[in-house]
Amino acid sequence: MSRLESMRRRLTAQIDGINWAADLIKDIDGDVLEMGLGNGRTYDHLRQEITGRRIWVIDRVLKPHPSCIPPKDDFLQGEAEDMLSKLADAGHKMALAHYDFGHGVKELDVAEGGALSPFIAALMVPGGLVLSQQPLVGFEQIKGPDTVDPERYLFYRAP
User: Are 113 and 135 spatial neighbours (Cβ–Cβ below 8 Å)?
Assistant: First the structure.
Protein backbone atom coordinates (compact mmCIF):
# COMPACT_ATOMS: atom_id res chain seq x y z
CA MET A 1 0.00 0.00 0.00
CA SER A 2 1.37 3.40 -0.94
CA ARG A 3 1.66 6.19 1.61
CA LEU A 4 -1.07 8.05 -0.27
CA GLU A 5 -3.43 5.06 0.03
CA SER A 6 -2.53 4.76 3.70
CA MET A 7 -3.37 8.43 4.24
CA ARG A 8 -6.74 7.98 2.53
CA ARG A 9 -7.45 5.01 4.80
CA ARG A 10 -6.49 7.05 7.88
CA LEU A 11 -8.68 10.01 6.90
CA THR A 12 -11.65 7.75 6.18
CA ALA A 13 -11.13 6.06 9.55
CA GLN A 14 -11.08 9.44 11.29
CA ILE A 15 -14.29 10.61 9.61
CA ASP A 16 -16.14 7.36 10.23
CA GLY A 17 -14.78 7.11 13.78
CA ILE A 18 -15.75 10.65 14.73
CA ASN A 19 -19.23 10.26 13.25
CA TRP A 20 -19.69 6.97 15.11
CA ALA A 21 -18.39 8.40 18.40
CA ALA A 22 -20.49 11.57 18.12
CA ASP A 23 -23.61 9.41 18.23
CA LEU A 24 -22.36 7.29 21.15
CA ILE A 25 -21.55 10.26 23.41
CA LYS A 26 -24.89 12.05 22.98
CA ASP A 27 -25.94 11.13 26.54
CA ILE A 28 -22.51 11.58 28.14
CA ASP A 29 -21.72 14.96 29.70
CA GLY A 30 -18.34 16.48 29.03
CA ASP A 31 -16.21 18.41 26.59
CA VAL A 32 -14.26 17.24 23.55
CA LEU A 33 -10.47 17.20 23.25
CA GLU A 34 -8.44 17.30 20.04
CA MET A 35 -4.82 16.39 20.71
CA GLY A 36 -2.77 17.52 17.74
CA LEU A 37 -4.31 20.32 15.66
CA GLY A 38 -1.99 20.18 12.66
CA ASN A 39 -3.75 21.70 9.66
CA GLY A 40 -7.09 21.60 11.52
CA ARG A 41 -8.99 19.15 9.30
CA THR A 42 -10.01 16.82 12.15
CA TYR A 43 -10.84 19.76 14.43
CA ASP A 44 -13.04 21.17 11.66
CA HIS A 45 -14.89 17.86 11.38
CA LEU A 46 -15.30 17.62 15.16
CA ARG A 47 -16.89 21.04 15.38
CA GLN A 48 -19.18 20.21 12.45
CA GLU A 49 -20.34 16.88 13.89
CA ILE A 50 -20.35 17.66 17.61
CA THR A 51 -22.16 20.90 18.26
CA GLY A 52 -23.00 22.41 21.61
CA ARG A 53 -19.84 21.20 23.35
CA ARG A 54 -16.60 22.94 24.09
CA ILE A 55 -13.77 21.56 21.96
CA TRP A 56 -10.35 21.90 23.55
CA VAL A 57 -7.29 21.75 21.32
CA ILE A 58 -3.69 21.02 22.28
CA ASP A 59 -0.64 21.43 20.06
CA ARG A 60 2.92 22.69 20.24
CA VAL A 61 2.33 25.25 17.51
CA LEU A 62 -0.67 27.02 16.03
CA LYS A 63 -0.37 26.62 12.26
CA PRO A 64 -3.74 25.40 10.94
CA HIS A 65 -5.62 26.54 7.88
CA PRO A 66 -7.03 30.00 8.74
CA SER A 67 -10.60 28.66 8.78
CA CYS A 68 -9.65 26.08 11.43
CA ILE A 69 -8.18 28.25 14.17
CA PRO A 70 -9.88 27.38 17.47
CA PRO A 71 -11.07 30.14 19.81
CA LYS A 72 -8.17 31.53 21.83
CA ASP A 73 -9.61 30.31 25.14
CA ASP A 74 -9.94 26.74 23.82
CA PHE A 75 -6.39 26.38 22.45
CA LEU A 76 -3.60 25.21 24.73
CA GLN A 77 -0.16 25.65 23.22
CA GLY A 78 2.71 23.69 24.66
CA GLU A 79 3.89 20.22 25.54
CA ALA A 80 1.08 17.69 25.79
CA GLU A 81 1.84 16.48 29.31
CA ASP A 82 1.76 20.04 30.66
CA MET A 83 -1.41 21.00 28.78
CA LEU A 84 -3.26 17.80 29.76
CA SER A 85 -2.30 18.42 33.38
CA LYS A 86 -3.50 22.01 33.12
CA LEU A 87 -6.93 20.85 31.91
CA ALA A 88 -7.17 18.22 34.65
CA ASP A 89 -6.08 20.66 37.36
CA ALA A 90 -8.84 23.05 36.22
CA GLY A 91 -11.41 20.25 36.61
CA HIS A 92 -12.32 19.83 32.94
CA LYS A 93 -13.73 16.45 31.89
CA MET A 94 -13.95 14.97 28.40
CA ALA A 95 -16.68 12.85 26.87
CA LEU A 96 -14.55 12.37 23.75
CA ALA A 97 -10.86 12.69 23.09
CA HIS A 98 -9.14 12.35 19.73
CA TYR A 99 -5.44 11.51 19.95
CA ASP A 100 -3.54 12.62 16.86
CA PHE A 101 -0.01 13.32 18.09
CA GLY A 102 2.83 11.77 16.20
CA HIS A 103 6.37 12.08 14.98
CA GLY A 104 5.93 9.72 12.05
CA VAL A 105 8.25 7.15 13.62
CA LYS A 106 6.20 4.22 14.91
CA GLU A 107 8.39 3.42 17.93
CA LEU A 108 8.42 7.04 19.11
CA ASP A 109 4.69 7.42 18.53
CA VAL A 110 3.82 4.26 20.47
CA ALA A 111 6.07 5.31 23.36
CA GLU A 112 4.54 8.78 23.49
CA GLY A 113 0.99 7.38 23.43
CA GLY A 114 1.81 5.10 26.33
CA ALA A 115 3.44 7.90 28.32
CA LEU A 116 0.52 10.29 27.79
CA SER A 117 -2.20 7.71 28.48
CA PRO A 118 -2.45 8.38 32.25
CA PHE A 119 -2.78 12.11 31.60
CA ILE A 120 -5.59 11.49 29.10
CA ALA A 121 -7.30 9.05 31.47
CA ALA A 122 -7.35 11.71 34.20
CA LEU A 123 -9.49 13.91 31.94
CA MET A 124 -12.05 11.36 30.80
CA VAL A 125 -15.54 10.94 32.21
CA PRO A 126 -16.46 7.32 32.93
CA GLY A 127 -17.64 5.75 29.68
CA GLY A 128 -16.12 8.50 27.57
CA LEU A 129 -14.48 7.57 24.27
CA VAL A 130 -10.92 7.98 23.02
CA LEU A 131 -10.10 7.64 19.32
CA SER A 132 -6.46 7.17 18.43
CA GLN A 133 -4.17 6.15 15.63
CA GLN A 134 -1.65 5.04 18.28
CA PRO A 135 -2.02 2.39 20.97
CA LEU A 136 -2.92 3.77 24.40
CA VAL A 137 -2.81 2.02 27.77
CA GLY A 138 -5.22 1.94 30.70
CA PHE A 139 -8.37 2.05 28.59
CA GLU A 140 -10.77 -0.66 27.47
CA GLN A 141 -10.25 -1.18 23.74
CA ILE A 142 -13.60 -1.51 21.97
CA LYS A 143 -14.72 -2.30 18.44
CA GLY A 144 -15.25 0.80 16.37
CA PRO A 145 -17.45 1.23 13.32
CA ASP A 146 -17.52 -1.68 10.87
CA THR A 147 -16.04 0.54 8.15
CA VAL A 148 -12.77 0.98 10.07
CA ASP A 149 -10.00 -1.60 10.05
CA PRO A 150 -9.26 -2.28 13.74
CA GLU A 151 -5.55 -2.36 12.92
CA ARG A 152 -5.71 1.13 11.38
CA TYR A 153 -7.55 3.12 14.04
CA LEU A 154 -8.15 2.34 17.70
CA PHE A 155 -11.20 2.99 19.85
CA TYR A 156 -11.22 3.02 23.63
CA ARG A 157 -13.73 3.49 26.43
CA ALA A 158 -12.65 5.21 29.63
CA PRO A 159 -13.21 3.23 32.84
Answer: yes
